[in-house]
Each structure stands twice: as C-alpha cells, then as structure tokens.
Please model this.
Amino acid sequence: HVQLVESGGGSVQTGGSLRLSCTRPGYTFKRYCMGWFRQAQGKEREGVAIIGPDGTTTYADSVKGRFTVSKDNAKNTLYLQMNSLQPEDSGMYYCAAETLSRCVSNWYMLSRSDLFRYWGQGTQVTVS
Model:
C-alpha cells in the first residue's frame, strides 16, 4: 500500500531553484490538508509549508518569500517551488497529508508533524 511519493530533489548550487512534487494516486487532495517537512542531518524535523483544504498557505519564517506551496487538484499533485536556495535548506524533504476532518490550523500543524498520518519516503535536497 503506497502512501505518498515525492520527487524532484537533487543537488543545486547556492541561489538555485528546485521544484518538489508529491502525489498519491486514487485520493482527492482537495479533501486533505498537506504539508512539507524537512530534516537536516543531526537535527529535528521541522515544518516548511502547510496548505489547507481551502488552499490557505502557511510558511516557516526561514523560507518566507523564497518557497511556494501549491496543489493541482486535477492531477492530485502537491508542489513545493524552492527559489534562492541556501546551504541551510539542505536536508531530506517529506510530503505529509491528513484528512480534512482531522485538520487544524495551518500554523499549528506546521510545528506538529505528528498530526499527519500519511507520509512519503522523502527526497534529498543538497545545496552547496
């Protein structure tokens, strides 16, 4: 049973861009709240961006103005556009989802990864 699948990670030089994608065929993303989390080696997992069922977005202060989270409901695909990448953005990026009935405020879920039940395997992002 497949949960979520991320893609788009890789190595990029400082100042470059990457676009991450996340999908779960057979599920309607518009009925989920979804988010992106990352974990640098030796550090705790941290929230990057959250998008609610209504499309409302919330970002970590460290990525505001540089990252954009969006979703294409027709394709059941979640995206994270990352611009002006810095070395501190390096880490394993994970896509997460939770059903609408269990969703709470975006700002709260950004700091509580344990509230998400569905996860992808992660995609590595390295900036140098």
About this structure: The two ends are 36 Å apart (CA to CA).
